[in-house]
Amino acid sequence: MKRHLAGLLITALVAIFGAGFISVSGTAHDVAARQSLVIATGPSGGTYFPVGEAIAAIVSHPPGVDRCEIRDACGPAGLIASARTSAGAVANLRDVNTNGVDSALAQSDVVAEAVSGEGPFRANGPQTHIRSIAILFSEDVLIIASRSSGIRTLAELKGKRVSMGAPGSGTLVTAKAVLDAAHLTRQIRASTEPADIAAQDLSNGRLDALFFVGGAPVPLVQDLASRGLAVFVPIDGADRRRLLAQTHGLVEAAIPAATYSGQARIETVATHAVFIVNDSVSSDIVFGITRSLFNPANRQVLADSNPSAGSIRLGTATLDLPVPLHPAAARYYGEIASAAARAEPNKIR
Predict the structure, then answer these.
(1) In sequence order, which ranges of the chain are alpha helices (DSSP H)?
(2) Rounded distance between C-alpha atoms, residue 291 and residue 323, angstroms
(3) Is 300 helix (H, G, I), strand (E, B) or coil?
(4) Which residues does residue 277 pair with via DSSP β-bridges, in sequence order?
(5) How far apart are alpha carbons 175 and 27 in whole angstroms?
(6) pTM score, two decimals?
(7) pLDDT tens, residue by residue, 10-40
(8) Does residue 298 sit in helix, strand or coil?
(9) pLDDT tens across 267-319, in order?
(10) Which of 162, 179, 55, 175 is nearest to 105 (CA)?
(11) DSSP three-state, residue 39
């Protein structure tokens, strides 16, 4: 009987919370209405998913969470954010544009194509409802070959079984650009399985190489490297020069030695991860999550999700944006700049 009464009490409390208030000793206290935010990420073995989970955790503001007592550590009261796996950047951009999801992570080179209606977005035209919250971190373009394949250079992909990334992924867009620049587009045996499956196929000898774009270290790439199954293929020389001349949103880069197990310094190119949002998401939500994203109290949570997320900083958040800021994000950065100017009025900027 006691357990039954306790169950009824819990049910009643849930019903009261759902109605937006709870009565304590006859006094009604407002409880913030629940608001949801979905963040589309990428495959579970990539960088986007763990980072998206971390962002969802820090911006959520359910009742009774102690860390939300820290000023501006959480998003607006009542916000519940969740991360969702996806095929990748192209799918994310389409879903955000149509308001299928509220927000997402995407590669800056693919965002640039989306807003201009180029590449995979040519058939549907410019994606006009996408806005940015922040540039997050750098993403390396990786070509991973099985150690037994004999592939050590980009040219040696010719005739090999190569995974270019799943349909809907940003990796597929960037891989096509790399292969076009190297005049290899029709010279490989291409496949488009999801990244997690491609990694399994490479480890089992059913695939010779795979492309992946992500912030270092990419979990699935780290796994292959730590087991001694993979080597890194550089993007350099004339192929890289052509690629950079033909593609917006990519820059010359190098992966430092020992970023992955047993890996020497590798020349490549890189893009940036962008936190994007549909333009209809409310200003209160966007302002609150932007403020939470850059709260120093949350820095370690982000860094723990992936080392690349540890480089999320205000100083780089608005550099080289491929799409305009959401007005509420712009307001946040403007307030930060104004506060800094008031604190140091004589500083030469």
Answers:
(1) 2-19, 48-59, 89-97, 108-116, 170-181, 195-203, 219-226, 237-246, 283-293, 299-305, 327-343
(2) 20
(3) helix
(4) 103, 131
(5) 61
(6) 0.86
(7) 333 333 334 343 323 333 334 568 999 999 9
(8) helix
(9) 999 999 999 999 999 999 999 999 999 999 999 999 999 999 999 999 999 99
(10) 55
(11) strand
